[in-house]
User: Fold this.
Amino acid sequence: MSTMGTQLRRVALAAILLTLASLTRLVAGTFHSTDGSVYEGTIDYANEKEVTFKTSDGAFATAAIAELAPESASAVQAWMEANPDLSGVYSVWDQKPSVVRSRVAVTPPQLSSPGFKGLVSLQVILDESGKVSRAAVSKSTHEALEEAAIDAMRKWSFKPAQVAGKNVKARIAISFKFEA
Assistant:
């Protein structure tokens, strides 16, 4: 490998790291609305009307972008441009997504003792075709169940949500119950 190639790779890596650092500042922080409400946390997803934050306690809070203070609205807009896969996601639709194919989550063997029960709730992002593009744990009774729930969720498919007759990305909540 040439010295020039090595230097170019180092410059490219430095640029990527700087970009990631600036995105982290946009994603995590304090967001203010014009009515005095304060949202502490990270941006989870957004569309042209609203943004959903994940707070430090794992809860979700949604705010209208038009009601955010200008600097907070600008930060959300910058985040949307940097995160196109999580932009344009709706939680209210004209036609809700419907399950086409589902899979049962399998209880891990180490937790399959008689009488065992558990629950994992997921926040799921569907793309415009109804495929699961992201699944994140919002609540869980056992950390060991989380991967099983996410693995099962990734095998689901949906008829897409629609807004104004157009297929859109959607956020839904799905819970998996585990019993042995």
Summary: Residues 120 and 146 are 6 Å apart (CA to CA). The radius of gyration is 20 Å.
